[in-house]
């Protein structure tokens, strides 16, 4: 088990609270913020971080969905989950098979995709007039599934697609949360099956669970006094910054290698 100091754990818990606050308001960013920040600053190993993210998403999702579950777009969720599930298993297998620069190249590709998608949406923030066909949500789920298996961040393709749909912000937010709960629950089952839970994971998780609960509560109790369009644009900024963080992390690692 690698040695991790209390300062690194405190920073990790802070990222967890920030990610939960953002995900409660926008429907995404918990995994992106925690994974990109943790890997950028080398707080925890990637497998440990990904495992914890899966559990944190379940906690945040339970707190959000107990009241808002009826807002979810069930057809979109079903199609996305069907597409994502086999690819999450593939990505999880690759995480244990790939080492060194190969893993960093995958992280770099993910970061570029996230940043590019966010930039496109910033320049064209208004949603499309017509809803995308159901198979499009399956393709988005499958595209993100492999990165979900690798880094517990399967959201970017579906986030990009949903934020272009003629849907309310509540529908987008809750649909994403439902998707994350199901896919991260599946990924967590994979980690339990191979018995990869250790003492470091348990310690980091204990503080992160409290941080996520506080972040989720703060977002629900004290939501920012801004319009839905402002929240949507803020979500895109977070998406872009997460992509930049992943690009920076991979770039530094590849340069050192």
Automatic annotation (TrEMBL):
Tree of life domain: Bacteria
Membrane topology designation: Multi-pass membrane protein
GO cellular component: plasma membrane
Subcellular location: Cell membrane
InterPro entries recorded: TM_pro_TauE-like, TSUP
Main location: membrane
Keywords, in A-Z order: Cell membrane, Membrane, Transmembrane, Transmembrane helix, Transport
Transmembrane feature ranges: 43-65, 77-99, 105-122, 134-152, 172-190, 202-219, 231-255
Family in the record: Belongs to the 4-toluene sulfonate uptake permease (TSUP) (TC 2.A.102) family.
The protein's name: Probable membrane transporter protein
């Amino acid at each position: 088990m690698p040695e991790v100091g209390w300062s690194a754990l405190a920073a990790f818990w802070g990222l967890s609270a920030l990610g939960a606050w953002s995900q409660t308001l926008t429907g995404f960013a918990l995994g992106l913020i925690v994974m990109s920040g943790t890997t950028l600053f080398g707080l925890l190993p990637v497998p440990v971080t990904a495992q914890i993210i899966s559990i944190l998403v379940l906690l945040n999702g339970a707190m959000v969905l107990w009241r808002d579950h009826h807002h979810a777009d069930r057809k979109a969720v079903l199609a996305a989950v069907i597409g994502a599930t086999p690819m999450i298993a593939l990505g999880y297998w690759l995480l244990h098979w790939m080492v060194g620069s190969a893993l960093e190249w995958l992280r770099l590709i993910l970061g570029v995709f996230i940043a590019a998608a966010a930039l496109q949406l910033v320049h064209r923030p208004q949603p499309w007039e017509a809803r995308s066909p159901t198979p499009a949500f399956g393709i988005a789920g499958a595209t993100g599934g492999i990165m979900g298996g690798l880094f517990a961040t399967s959201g970017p393709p579906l986030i990009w697609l949903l934020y272009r749909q003629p849907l309310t912000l509540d529908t987008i937010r809750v649909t994403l949360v439902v998707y994350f709960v199901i896919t991260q629950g599946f990924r967590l089952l994979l980690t339990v099956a191979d018995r990869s839970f250790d003492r470091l994971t348990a310690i980091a998780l204990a503080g992160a669970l409290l941080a996520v609960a506080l972040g989720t509560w703060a977002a629900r109790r004290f939501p920012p006094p801004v319009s839905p369009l402002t929240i949507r644009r803020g979500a895109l900024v977070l998406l872009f910054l997460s992509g930049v963080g992943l690009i920076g992390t991979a770039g530094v690692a590849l340069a050192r290698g």
